Amino acid sequence: MRYTGKLTGGLLGFVLGFGPVGAVLGALIGHQFDAHAERREAGGHAGGAAAVGERFFRATFRVMGCLAKADGHVSAQEIAAARAVMGQLGLTGAQVHVAIEHFTAGKQPDFDLQGQIAELNRVCLGRPDLKRVFLELQIRAALAGNDLDGPVRPLLRQIAARLGISAFEFAHIEAALRAQARPFGASAAAAASGEDLERAYRVLGVAATDSDRDIIKAYRRQLSRHHPDKLKANGLPDSMLEHAKQRTQQIIEAYELIRERRRIQA
Is residue 30 assigned to a domain? Predict the structure, then answer.
């Protein structure tokens, strides 16, 4: 199955708040990423973007199903959580059907989780940002499904380790996704108490004691990791780019809050 559709860099330009000018600049950046991906595919690269995207999609929902069944049964809440992720990603009806098939395959007793992660490692060789997105999607579903209770957390930690993602990075991803559940500024009490600011630091993976320079470096690093066009060029299927856009928006909002409070010069 080949996932089609075009995400232009112009959309990111608007997300960044640069309006029409940003849209033009974003489109140019997006074109460069697309051209790079097309050259790789044209050269017969074994891990071409389309092939990577197909395998990434399959692995995402099969492992999601396996994690939901980790305690021996799949609850209605876990099914609803997986469905919610599909909806948040904006999957088409056909894509939802395929995703459910993969989710069901992952629930089976004979599902080879270790083999699936090994295949994903091969597919994502040289693409560490894709591995992070994969883990983010699993944590996102697990948080809504059972809040990482029972065997899910240790199993996810094992998966992260197999993908070369440290325990520190795992904790940062979890904190960022928990923070995503409530937008910054949604509660006046949270803003007044400093809770929003604390969450913003967690999203960037920094501490309040870090220097302005470190804050800026962390912001740029996180923004680069979740750049939709970059991830698309590396094989993230179009059907999952919505996750990258949501995380990008969260990172921008977190940085803007920190920048305003610390009066960091733009």
Answer: no
